[in-house]
UniProtKB/TrEMBL annotation:
Name the UniProt record assigns to this protein: Uncharacterized protein
Domain of life where this protein originates: Bacteria
Pfam families in UniProt: DUF190
The organism of origin for this protein: Bradyrhizobium macuxiense
UniProt family annotation: Belongs to the UPF0166 family.
Lineage per the UniProt record: Bacteria, Pseudomonadati, Pseudomonadota, Alphaproteobacteria, Hyphomicrobiales
Amino acid sequence: MQIPKQAILLRIFIGEDDQCNGSPLYEAIVLKAREQHLAGATVLRGPMGFGKSSRLHTTKILRLSEDLPLVIEIVDSEENINGFLPVLDGIMTSGLITLEKVQVLRYGEQAMA
């Protein structure tokens, strides 16, 4: 698989406790991205953050469920990312989704020409 040099970064901000049909939402998103043959997905866990509710989520407060912030990043062609957006609409009930243009310098073992 090859990613075009000019690609799109899809960034999804959700909470660790967000669910989709009884499974973690981040897991559902990554599995759907893989199912649609997107170039790859990475889930990043943040030690602190807040969203629309302004409620602070942090590792500093001791509690059973921390609901820490998660960011899922996916880079692929604009066409493939746009094809994935309706899938996200079907499985997400809250969160933040952003898109930005990126220049791919390397994907895999060889540098982009």
